[in-house]
Amino acid sequence: MQAKKRYLILFSAGACLVLLLYLSGVQVPASKRNPNRRDDRSGHRPNSHWPHFTEPLQPFIPWDQTETEDYSAHTWPRQKRDVNSGVYKGKRCRMDSCFDFSLCGKDSFKVYVYPQQKGEKISESYQNILSSIEGSRFYTSDPGQACLFVLNLDTLDRDKLSPQYVHNLKTKIQNLSLWNNGRNHLIFNLYSGTWPDYTEDLGFDIGQAMLAKASTSTENFRPNFDVSIPLFSKDHPRTGGERGYLKYNSIPPFRKYTLVFKGKRYLTGIGSDTRNALYHVHNSEDVVLLTTCKHGKDWQKHKDARCDRDNAEYDRYDYKEMLHNSTFCLVPRGRRLGSFRFLEALQAACIPVVLSNGWELPFSEVIDWSAAAVIGDERLLLQIPSTVHTIHQDKILSLRQQTQFLWEAYFSSVEKIVLTTLEIIHDRVLQQLARSSLMWNRLPGGLFTLPHYSSYLGHFPFYFGPLGIRTLPKFTAVIHAVTPLVSQSQPILKLLAAVAKSQHCAQIVVLWNCDRPLPVKHRWPATSQSVIVIEGENKVMSSRFLPYGSIVTDAVLSLDEDTVLSTTEVDFAFIVWQSFPERIVGYPARSHFWDINKERWGYTSKWTNDYSMVLTGAAFYHRYYNYLYTNYLPASLKSMVDQLSNCEDILMNFLVSAVTKLPPIKVTQKKQYKETMMGQTSRASRWADPDHFAQRQTCMNKFASWFGTMPLVHSQMRLDPVLFKDQVSILRKKYRDIERL
Amino acid sequence: MDRGPPQCARCSTGLNCPWPSPIPERGDLSCRMHTCFDVYRCGYNPKNRIKVYIYPLQRFVDDVGVPISSTGLSREYNDLLSAISDSDFYTDDVTRACLFVPSIDVLNQNSLRIRETAQALATLPRWDKGMNHLLFNMLPGGPPDYNTALDVPRDRALLAGGGFSTWTYRQGYDVSIPVYSPLSDEVDLPERQPGPRRYFILSSQTAIHREYRVELERLKEENGEALLLLDKCSNLSQDMASARKRCYKGQMYDYPQILQESSFCVVLRGARLGQATLSDVLQAGCVPVIMADSYILPFSEVLDWKRASVVIPEEKLPEMYMILKSIPPRQVEEMQRQARWFWEAYFRSMRAIGLTTLQIINDRIYPYAACTYEHWNNPPVVKWSSVNSPLFLPLIPPRSPGFTAVVLTYDRVESLFRVITEIAKVPSLAKLLVVWNNQNKSPPEESLWPKIAVPLKVVRTKENKLSNRFFPFDEIETEAVLAIDDDIIMLTSDELQFGYEVWREFPDRLVGYPGRLHLWDHEMGKWKYESEWTNEVSMVLTGAAFYHKYFNYLYTYKMPGDIKNWVDAHMNCEDIAMNFLVANITGKAPIKVTPRKKFKCPECTAIDGLSLDQTHMVERSECINKFASVFGTMPLKVVEHRADPVLYKDDFPEKLKSFPNIGSL
User: How is the protein disposed in the membrane (chain B) (predicted)?
Assistant: First the structure.
């Protein structure tokens, strides 16, 4: 080793000649260009530049260095990994050193919550966190299945002066049977430390546990191990949550105020500098930064010369009014790095201007905050007004929309915050299944894009635009069969023939959910497309939305067996769907309304001027929604559908609208669907059942309560062929069958 | 190597330097931009560009005259410094600089004397504990334990390092850079079409640990021909040329050319995490399969590696084949394209690596002017074909603000007044704006105008230009604009109100009444304009159309090329231009709304005298061809639907319909 090094240094003497030449004043004239250099110099800059060398320089890697790098003689990779996990503990924990991947299945990620113990005080916020986990698809009640463990002890508030503070956590945690020095544990925390220094210590030894913590500083944050979560109030809703306040994309996007802030000023101690200096940029016109000295009992003791003036100004403005009427909202650090202002601004579409040096922004591992916020530097406070003034209106328009997307995707409820936290850890554990940045930062967001479905963005209905790609012009029809095949004039056979004639039909899947055995093959009509008959799993309703592997096209045409459709109608709806691949596009539509008297959601199948659902007895949608229906929705809702043998279409509409925030699309049809439906006398027809309607009403309310909100959206329009019922020769019309009765 | 008492690196010429110079502290792991970087030096500047100073070249030797580095200035570091000095980051004024780059080459730690290099750094006149200094290092550490960051003590200096691990990388402070491969310059690998290659997986590295080679060989046994497992050629004399050859069972392959024959290429950690092979693999458009636990991928702060590579934990090497097989072929193709693009943009030269590093630091200092995800990650072909609608949020605005009708008029006062009277009946009309395009004549006196319930404003223009109808007047306070000609009197109040309701559901589109189509004329080999009653629509006329006010800005300030002038000069096709613009930025077709009635003169512009004649149509065809060439593509999208009220023409009592008076002639 030593010898080698010495050799290298001796060898270097020659190499340095080049430099010596230069240093002893032999400068290369600019005209003598080095032929080895590829980068062209613009040549019009007069000032002194990096010199050129005529003599060839040495490469930085000698050609044989890869040989010397061979480390076979040294540590074995396995040993090296073991060494890492021995060395990198505590503040240097990383997934590679402090997390046991072997507890997680090959592609499953399960979370266990310690059972709650009697007498253990748990705050409402922590209760919400725990129930969100228990209601999620990651939850397991079997610790043997689990790869991540969550405590039944409330660790949210670790401020010793707080009434919520839980004592003796240290012993309680050590007594947990599965604690294992915190390995694979996740600890939630909103507040740590207390006056005067507000350290980030939780007051007990977290061992090798991961932290999901608010107000984390970059110094203490362990990248790809901890998760930075937002500070949320105890009133933050458990599920659903309010939508963002942005109602219009007004242009120019400027609001009454450019930049606002209203909050406490601490006068002394940690975090007081920035807020104390805000008055320098306050101009009471477009930049309104208000502070009050009034907080705590003894604020008068620290009172400074500005306090009275500041306090008076503070009382003149209404916070809500400012929030809704400002383009930017200042989010300066408080005592701790994070503050409630952040989420408030986000929801209000008031672009956060973050002044909190060293704050690891919420979910920074996956969220690209530069697309939704302005990250300032406390040291440059005085530049902030000019900075925000230079931000172009296009950028404001897009920042503002992004605040709304992020708010609704990840922050509007405790459940979303918790699920986002779990999904981030999921993506680390199942690395190959991790979402790409696009999935996190584009509509509809990471919680609605399940990577197990596909790693390819083009397989989802959401990214055709951003990727510049198109869908395949084919669809798969899935016919839900519940009555036995007895006659050749049965509706299902007509339907099959009509669908098969469509030029866009790639294949037809008959889902045999009838309790009779499968009909023999020759009973099915001969069609040009392949007909695949699948025996339904348990013959339950939800099986019609299973993501069958045999569905190979993006588009699924979901059909009831008694649906009456012509080939033309199918073709037209499919063409429309291609323009709206993220929505349900179909024929019979239904509507919901808020029943004021009964204080609940109502369902109507009457002919109305608007609709919010399209029945999946005849509708196109993207096959991803089959996957989402099966894997995203909780077992409770799916089993309700199965037990009632009803409402599956309502649930699908809820799901798709929750994802898209948009209504489905109704296309025109011959006016016979409804009549046929109602005239059905077949004993299997569920539409004939008088309970049917009441059940659907109940379903609506059950679904709305699980979603925490009503996701359905009304539409007042229907899409018809361009020349539909126009007074031109029918021969000019492409979809003439649709208007022929 | 024992050199006796402490040595000090000394400057050989010119400068006064403290002696013995102190040794900087090891890098501080807690350093972040807000703690170890002096942002005041960068200051506020309108270009949002940091200024970078490069120290003049000096020769550093210890007190017995031995240089601190065995190579001195390397070719690569020289290229890097030249590139910076040629870029607009560069300043030769040390007092204006925000970032300082030493001319001491630390790219390869192997060739450095660590302690002496550190001392040399400390002698730099502006060193100041390494504040705002940037060091470039590609090969950190040395035997036996190969640290993952440069071992040279460097105080607070930022490190652009190749081969960081998660434990040494200071997120948001350091920059992870590639290990430059000299083959980038030496070998020309033309870009290949993405698609399946001869081999599925290729391993071409020579210094693979035995443990991993055994596992790779096992995979090879299981999967046969799909895998190609190369190693050094044992029969060649070990010289420079042998670095460009690889062998498998006596068969010789050219490296890196062979990389182009595989869909996936293994990039395993060596002693170091960063491998120059990664660059070769990307250059070949082969999808790297990176197995280097805890490795911080190059430029991971801005690059979405998920789209260009597969990262597999080292432990899962045996599952590699299964994992890769599960990736859909279309995704593999996109990853191949993406890999090549990463090489072209960020790996191919020291210039690319250096300037990317500076851009990343620049983005941290001016985050509000930072490059977007799309800018960093979309290859040109995607940038070209993808759309990122400026109105991307799914938002159905409330009905209440209503819309502003903008009527462009010249002097057809009578007809104008009729239009105003008709539009005033629409419930959601918020304001009426008359754009008076006649400079020779004043608009009628105020008392003569129809009395309507909403504000009516008249704006006079300076020139009689068609583009004036799309000017983003401050008077337009609503999002929704109804552009309407002064002779469109045939639309009913229900039809207009319904149009507005449809616009609310599609606020990012043009929503209009008469639809038009573009067609490819195979005989002439060019686009043709079609106004006959067709089953398809790709444009709506703006003689009566709703759209978002944002598009007025786009039309007025961002219309590509000379389209705007062309429209004004020809007094035609402003509507086609608007359709192009909206379709191009949103990737969406317009929405045509119900009525199919004969507009009096739908192809007429607001100016009298033009008529629906053949020449007019020819001109509109020309417009389409002209605009398509300016846009470089045909952005218009063809659809076969139009929007009708839900109960349109249904057998249902008219009085119960929201919009009964629609579509009657």
Answer: Single-pass type II membrane protein
CA separation for the pair B286, A525 (Å, rounded)? 48
Residue type for position B518: H
Residue B422 Cα to chain centre, angstroms:
46
HEC string of B490-545? Answer: CCCHHHHHHHHHHHHHCCCCCEECCEEEEEEECCCCEEEEECCCCCCECEECCCEE
**A432: chain B residues, CB-CB within 8 Å:** 310-312, 323
- Mean per-residue pLDDT for A71-100? 79
Asked whether the beta carbons of A726 and A669 are under 8 A apart, the reply is no
Assigned token pair, A339: 């503050």
Tell me the C-alpha distance between A171 and A188, whole Å.
Answer: 18
Tell whether domain A257-408 is in CATH 3.40.50.2000.
yes
Number of Cα atoms under 13 Å in the Cβ half of residue B309: 27
CA–CA separation, B479 and B503 (whole Å): 10
Beta partners for residue A667, in sequence order:
A719
Cα-based torsion angle of the residue sequence B648, B651, B654, B658 in order, rounded to the nearest 10 degrees = -40
Give the one of A57, A224, A717 whose C-beta lies nearest to B505's C-beta. Answer: A717
CA B317 to chain CA centroid, Å, is: 34
Contacts of B307 in chain A (CB under 8 A): 436, 438
Cβ of B54 and A50 within 8 Å?
Answer: yes
* ipTM > 0.95, yes or no: no
A287-292 vs A351-355, strand pairing mode: unpaired
Q: How far apart are CA A424 and CA A421, in angstroms?
A: 5
Helix (H) or strand (E) run with residue A292 in it? strand A287-292
Residues A373, A375, A378, A382, Cα dihedral to 10°? -70
Which residues, 6 or more positions from B389, have their beta carbon under 8 angstroms from its beta carbon?
A465, B508, B585, B586, B587, B588
Q: Are A453 and A169 in contact (CB under 8 A)?
A: no
Would you tell me how many other CB atoms lie within 10 Å of the CB of residue B4? Answer: 6
- Residue A43: is it exposed, middle or buried by C-beta count within 10 angstroms (0-12/13-18/19+)? exposed
Task: Give the nearest partner residue to B86 out of A5, A42, A436, using CB atoms.
Answer: A42
Q: Over 50: is that where the pLDDT of A280 sits?
A: yes
Backbone φ, ψ for residue B610 (5° rounding):
-85, 140
3-state SS, residue B252: strand
* Mutation target among B12, B45, B71 for the A interface, most CBs of A within 10 A: B71
- Residues 527-556 in A contacting B (C-alpha not used; CB under 8 Å): none
Cis ω before B144 (30° cut-off from 0)? yes
Domain ranges of chain A: 85-228, 257-408, 475-588+609-674+715-719
Measured distance CA(B599)–CA(B597) in Å, rounded = 6
Q: Which residue has the higher pLDDT, B595 or A635?
A: A635
Contacts by A702-707, CB closer than 8 A, 24 or more apart: A702/A637, A702/A640, A703/A637, A703/A647, A703/A650, A703/A651, A703/A654, A704/A601, A704/A654, A706/A239, A706/A634, A706/A636, A706/A637, A707/A239, A707/A240, A707/A654, A707/A658
Question: Token digits for A331?
Answer: 């989010």
Neighbour tally for A178: CB within 10 Å: 13
Partner B, chain A 670-689, Cβ-Cβ below 8 Å: 671
Per-residue pLDDT at A536:
85
Q: Which amino acid is at B319?
A: E
Cis peptide before A362 (omega within 30 of 0): no
Assigned superfamily of A475-588+609-674+715-719: Spore Coat Polysaccharide Biosynthesis Protein SpsA; Chain A (3.90.550.10)
Does the pLDDT at position A522 exceed 80? no
Backbone φ and ψ of A467, nearest 5°: -95, -10
Strand residue runs (E) in A482-528: 505-512
Distance CA A424, CA A435 (A): 9
